[in-house]
Amino acid sequence: MEKNEKELAQLIQEISGLNPKKCMKCGKCSGACPAFHEMEYHPHQFVDMVDRGDVNRLLESKSIWMCLTCFACVERCPRDVKPANFIEAARLALIRQQGCNHLKDEAVPPLLDEEMPQQAIVSAYRKFKK
Amino acid sequence: MQRIGVFVCWCGSNIAATVDVQQVADELAKEPGVVYSTNYQYMCSQSGQQMIQEAIKEHHLTGIVICSCSPRMHEATFRKTAAAAGLNSYMVEIANIREQCSWIHKNKEEATEKAIILGRAAIAKVHLNAPLTAGESPVVKRALVIGGGIAGIQTALDIADAGFEVDIVEKKPTIGGKMAQIDKTFPTLDCAACILTPKMVDVAQNEKIHIYSYSEVESVKGFVGNFTATIKKKARYVKEDVCTGCGLCTEKCPMKKVPNEFNQMLDNRTAIYIPFAQAVPKVATIDPNACMMLKNGKCGVCSKVCTAGAIDYTQKDEYIEQQYGAIVVATGFNTIKLDNFDEFAYSQSPDVVTSLEFERLMNAAGPTGGTLLRPSDHTHPHTLVFVQCVGSRDISGCGKPYCSKICCMYTAKHAMLCREKYPDTEVYVFYIDVRTPGKNFDEFYRRAVEEYGVHYIKGMVGKVAPKDGKLMVQASDLLANDQLLIEADMVVLATAIEPDESARSIATMLTASMDTNDFFTEAHPKLRPVESPTAGIFLSGVCQGPKDIPETVSQASAAAAKVIGLLVKDKLTCNPCVAESNELMCNGCSACEKVCPYGAITYSDKEFRTPYRTTIMRRVASVNPAVCQGCGACTVACPSGAMDLKGFSTRQIMAEVDAICK
Amino acid sequence: MQVEETKEFKPTIVAFCCNWCSYAGADLSGTNRLNYPANVKIIRVPCSCRVNPMFILRAFQRGADGVILCGCHPGDCHYTTGNYYARRRMTLLFSMLDFLGIEKERTRVEWVSAAEGAKFAATMNDFVATITKLGENRRLEDIRCKKQ
Amino acid sequence: MVYSYFPGCTLKNKASDLDLYARKSAEVLGITMEEIEEWQCCGGVYPLGANETAPKLASVRALVAAKEKGQDLLTLCSACHHVLKRVNNDMAENENIRTKANNYMQLEVPYAGETKVVHYLEMLRDVVGFDQLKAKVVNPLKGTKIAAYYGCLLLRPSKVLGFDNPENPKIMEDFIKAIGAEPVIYPYRNECCGGYMAMENKELAKKKSSTVLQSAKENGAECVITACPLCMYNLKVNGGVDDLPVYYFTELLAQALGVK
To answer: Which pLDDT belongs to residue B136?
Structure first.
């Protein structure tokens, strides 16, 4: 069954287990984010979009796949909002659906090189697909 | 057995229209103990009151019940009436048959029945009433002000103006507090020293005010009107009454590398020092942690150069005991430590400063003589970044959950002054919200933007990275939805403020309550904002919550007015409806003491007789009736039923319950 | 078939109101002529924290069908913290009463400010309706105390 | 002191140096590292979703194994350390996850976060002591200017990891001093290297790692040390600063202790 946008936002909140309303929109997350310029929507917007239920645009954008999960936003947030967790929840809401993996198995081999540690591959698998 | 009189009021038709007053009077006349019952058109009128007084005398009544309007309306009236007829005013009970009966019920039968029940409850209660006398306690006509900042200064001046003695206890060597460190004041940009130092001089010259500088309050005992405080005068190794404040010692002292607190550690002072030129009292103080003479007996230069002979290396701490009628807390604030905010590189670069440090850097009497120079290399900065809300509004545990209130305005001031003095600078302010409620405040902020060209950016700094002597400021610009990287010369952090570290121990000493942030709680957040719930303790300035100078001064004067209102009284009448402990039943468990919001309950060991002519020492609670406000929290906390509330005793309330449920 | 005439059930309800907020709120609902049933009888106490759990047990013992405690809103207590004490004590008492089989709905704590006359009336109307639906309280009533 | 040791997949393969030198050094320092039997991959990343229990089970197994031996659990790889510590914290504090994980594991005694997870650096600081370490150094790296690179996973979120001040850490700097070298403080030592994005978005990883290395170099570093295989990869392959070698901290430790 197709979920409408509001339900999807609700689902993302549920997966995150967090409350986006705690955000006071200071923007420190976006001030701290090292991947900011890779994103169309930025950490403070993630939180806001989930809160407002405006998530279709977010889930379609490449932004959610750009998060490095470096926890700079989590560490520095004065309100304990944890933007990174919302980003991950948005990813999970997507990749838990059939055929929605961000990383396809056949796409992996060309991305590898001799030196690449297992850790990178395992992490990327965990972060990008189910 | 009481002889009770019942008086049912018609209140014109207000009661009589829906309640059969005759029937009520008749029914209540049948109650045990009721010897007289009547009804009348207007009980509160002159003739109604006269009727009550006559009945009291004629029927030798020991208690009366008035069935009328709410006690909130006329309880005081009828108490006076009773007292005038020689009946103790606490032998009066009101049955509220207007607001809580005739006005809300339409059915006359129902309303009459309810009025009778309410009357019965009041009769049941009055049976158990005992005459109460409001106690009196004397008032010592002297006030103690803890803290000598602008709040303490203003409070002391106002109290002294009314003719009362005031003592200011200040832990630093001089009064003046934080305001003395500030350069200019918003929104008028007066020089802080120009408006503060005359007040400090007024304090020094006022005969009614005594300053205990470099002193701390050691302990406080007693209660409203009658506190006893012990003040510790710390040894300053300089005879206060001999020192002329010439400052020669401070010039000659060889120990010149002591961080200077007054300049926020931005430069150094000597071991013997006078914090600043306009200090009050203008007396030198020796820092025992830095003085070579005090540490290892080698030096003594100051003593040699002092022509007045004021230096005394053998001075000891001195303790002074003094009585006070009222105590004002004006302990003020400090900026928080920035250990949890290293993303702003405060500990890594001297060019990242707090706003209070910035005040000193802009101040003509500051370490740079008022020329804005970077602390690292003493060069002129061209790009300055101000960061708001550093540690304020932070619930992550790193900072403070509240808004520090003053930062928006002082940052606007700093930014404006910066642009005014140095038009070649670029000034950026990163804000979350700009909060400028206050007279001429928003206009001031807008002037900073519109006339002085300060760049206000909605967003927050995420990281400051020192690079090649510059500071790379990475921040968000939420309106442009962008992340900026600004190459700055200085970063100024609007650091959150917190209550002074002494506040908690002082609150404990005074049994004054505090909130979770260590701000003192006021007796009522709206209606009694300058009083502590503990009687006789008053609050002035930031110790109660963040506030700016105008607000602090108005609160200080308000606190002074409250103190004066207390000190003009020769005696205090106490509310007689206070808690009372039955010592025979008390088991000394402290449960009541813990719930008492006023610290009215104390424990003492008392000797009791036991059978066989022996005695036993037991710890028992006693309530100070001058301090108790009569809430009754202790009565319920008491596990042994020893604690009761006069006027609302357990038996009285039970009797009402019984009467209603019968 | 014999039809017994049943009397309309009119519950007895005791309301404890703190002097500073709720009692004033009750007065205000009177001033504004906002009706609520006559079953509610108010006992004035200085603060909600003066209400001993014993008072409530006593009321039930003596035949009350419902007891409601009204105090100042959290943070507004005249005595700073009294209503917090009351809230804690009542939470414990009510859960014990619940355990004893006294329906949860028979007891209630409400915050009514001096300005909330309408809230006071609405609360009482609702409470009386609830108790009326529940019927007579038999569980704790001491029949020895009952007047025949 | 005997530790249960969780090496993790990368240390068995690409990052075998990190593991090898750690073991050699531990021997000198009187620390025994007992590798947990049949350990499973921690997953590399800590699952952030509130309702993800299964991906945490591998870590719980390792934690339980250490608990059964009555030992603290020693880790080396930043990622393993991060995941194990956070899962352990969940087991101690998150009732929902604890209940689910315990139901799944069917242990005789339920696990509630009793094991202490210790990073090798923490062990050096708190158990061996940097002063003691200094005393055991035979080849002090005199005068070498070393930049410590922490990355993200060791430090953040600091409330759970409790490793060091997340914005101004000093544990690695103290380590550098202990082995006789000179630490270089530079602002980007706790910024991300690009992490697992190295696979999908190499450009981003390049940008991030070169910022780090350039900052280290500008501040006079002669080499960089790290505790994370992925950081090592990014700095080396994507960092773009060829004349700044990157080592695992254990390699320099072994060198200083004379067991390299």
So the answer is: 85
Tell me if B342 and D168 make a contact (CB, 8 A cut-off): yes
Encoded tokens for D74? 């020693």
Break chain C into its structural domains and give their ranges.
13-138
- Among D150, D168, D184, D218, the strongest candidate for a mutation testing the B interface, having the largest count of B CBs within 10 A, is D168
Query: Which pLDDT score, from 0 to 100, does residue C137 have?
Result: 86
Tell me, yes or no, whether B505 lies in a domain.
no
Helix residue spans in chain D (DSSP H) = 16-29, 57-69, 78-93, 95-105, 120-123, 130-136, 158-161, 171-178, 197-200, 202-218, 229-233, 249-257
The chains found to touch B (3+ Cβ pairs under 8 angstroms) are A, C, D
B395: chain A residues, CB-CB within 8 Å: 22, 78-80
Mutate to test the interface with B, among C31, C72, C79, C123 (most CBs of B within 10 A): C79
Say yes or no: D155 contacts chain A, CB-CB below 8 A: yes
* Per-residue pLDDT tens over the stretch B353-387: 999 999 999 999 999 999 999 999 999 999 999 99
Q: Do chains D and C touch (3 or more CB pairs under 8 A)?
A: no
Task: Closest CB to B483: pick one of A24, A36, A80.
Answer: A36
Residue A76: strand, helix, or coil? helix
Give C23's contacts in chain B (Cβ within 8 Å): 70, 72
Which residues, in sequence order, are CB contacts of B439 under 8 Å at separation 6+? B187, B550
The count of domains in chain B is: 4
pLDDT surpasses 90 at D164: yes
Answer whether D187 sits within 8 Å of B339, measured CB to CB: no
Q: Per the CB < 8 Å rule, is B653 touching C23?
A: no
| Secondary-structure class of domain A5-97 per CATH | mainly alpha
The CATH code of domain C13-138 reads 3.40.50
Compute the distance between CA of residue D189 and CA of residue D224 in angstroms, rounded to an integer: 10
Domains assigned to chain D = 2-120 (1.20.1050.140), 136-257 (3.40.50.1860)
Touching check for A16 and chain D: CB below 8 Å? yes
Secondary structure (3-state) at D93 = helix
* Per-domain residue ranges of chain A: 5-97
Residue A103: its chain D contacts at CB < 8 A? 200
* CA distance to B165, B167, B226, B539, D193, per residue, from B567 (Å): 10, 14, 11, 16, 68
User: Residue B317: what pLDDT?
Assistant: 97
Q: What are the phi and psi torsion angles at B59 (to 5°)? A: -100, 10
Residues of chain B contacting residue D218, judged by C-beta atoms under 8 Å apart: 467-468
- Of B567, B597, B626, which residue constitutes the final position of a domain? B567
CB C130 within 8 A of CB C66: yes
pLDDT in tens, C1-29: 455 555 678 899 999 999 988 999 999 89
Mean pLDDT value of segment B73-81? 92
The distance in angstroms from the start CA to the end CA of chain A is 20
B window 497-556, beta carbon within 8 A of C? 513, 521, 523-525, 533
B575 touches chain C (CB under 8 A): no
**Interface contacts (B, D; CB < 8 Å):** 25
- Least Cα distance to B148 among B279, B291, B339, B300 occurs for B279
Range(s) of the domain holding residue B301: 142-321+550-567
The reply to whether B147 and B272 lie within a common domain is yes
Reduced DSSP (H G I as helix, E B as strand, rest coil) percent helix, strand, coil of chain B, to 5:
30, 25, 45
When CB atoms are compared, the residue of B72, B595, B661 closest to C85 is B595
| Confidence label for B238 from pLDDT (cuts 50, 70 and 90) | very high
pTM: 0.82
CA pair distance A129, A96, nearest whole angstrom: 8
The confidence score (pLDDT) of residue C1 equals 47
B297 or C1, which is more confident? Answer: B297
